[in-house]
Design goal:
A hairpin with an 8-residue loop joins strand 2 and strand 3. The protein has 148 residues and is of the alpha+beta class. The protein is built from two helices and four strands, in the order E-E-E-E-H-H. It is 51% helix and 18% strand. It folds into two domains: 91 residues, no CATH class; 33 residues.
């Protein structure tokens, strides 16, 4: 049997409860002592009760938080790619199989959602384009007024 990890992270909404895992007892039963609660969004690590976290505890917890943020970021982008697939499948459904009643049921909500998404995407794209252009008057324009 493989060794158990020293820590267990019970995932919750915005982070996890952190447990220290031990089998160092007479019955060799697995014992889990809650040592902290972590919040991924704000980076807060709160010791549980009177627990004092060691530098080793903090190091493991911080590494887990970094890994967890990466997993969540990967899931976010994967969800967006799935949404693109769903939009394509929805287009095909609307064109080939949807009844008039089906379309009546979803058209307004779909149009509003797509309009909202388009508005945000266009604004964000414009912001990115403007951010890559040199600001006026910062030397990007090499022509000088001659006064003639």
């Amino acid at each position: 049997m493989t060794e158990l990890p020293e820590y267990y992270f019970r995932i919750r909404e915005n982070g996890a409860a952190v447990f220290r895992v031990s089998t160092e007892n007479r019955q060799r039963r697995i014992e889990m002592e809650e040592i902290a609660v972590v919040n991924i969004r704000n980076g807060n690590i709160r010791p549980h009760g009177e627990t004092v976290l060691s530098p080793g505890d903090l190091s493991v917890i911080e590494a887990w938080m970094e890994d967890r943020r990466a997993v969540l970021a990967d899931r976010d982008i994967d969800d967006i790619h799935r949404a693109i697939d769903y939009l394509n499948l929805t287009t095909h459904w609307a064109q080939t199989r949807a009844s008039d009643e089906d379309l009546e049921d979803v058209t307004d909500r779909l149009l509003l959602a797509m309009h909202d998404l388009r508005t945000v995407l266009v604004r964000k794209k414009a912001d990115r384009i403007l951010a890559t252009r040199p600001a006026p008057g910062n030397g990007a324009d090499t022509t000088e007024a001659t006064g003639t």
